[in-house]
Amino acid sequence: VQLQASGGGLVQAGGSLRLSCAASGRSLSSYEMGWFRQVPGKEREFVAAISLTGIRKYYSDSVKGRFTISRDNAKNTVYLQMNSLKPEDTAVYYCAVRVSSSYYDVGAYDYWGQGTEVTVSS
Q: How many angstroms separate the CA atoms of 54 and 36, rounded?
């Protein structure tokens, strides 16, 4: 499966963006998915994850209540709606397929797509 993240950009603090992760090669309906982000010089960190049907969702404490992960299996796409953005949300955002037991660990994910850059100005 190949993943492509899009939807990043420059936004002012308090604004919103919606990221998309489109898959090709295989149906996303067979995979649990996650979003991660990375700032240069820092480790990639967990943002959100979603179960196969979208019923179970998991968030990092830093984005809980502001970000919402969702999926549309018919469109083979996973989304990350980001509201009330803060300058500390500035990062490159990546989507990936969960292949191991943990929802929160970067090592539990594979098939990383190219990231999309989000910049939040103060």
A: 17
Rounded to whole angstroms, what are the CA distances from 103 to 17, 108, 110?
23, 7, 12
Q: What is the pLDDT along the chain (122 residues), one digit of tens a residue?
A: 899 999 999 999 999 999 999 999 889 889 999 999 999 999 999 999 999 999 999 999 999 999 999 999 999 999 999 999 999 999 999 999 999 889 999 999 999 989 999 999 99
Q: Are strands 57-59 and 45-50 parallel, antiparallel or unpaired?
A: antiparallel
Q: For tokens 């993240």, name the residue.
A: 5
Supply 68's token pair: 């919402």
Q: How far apart are CA 77 and CA 54, in angstroms?
A: 12
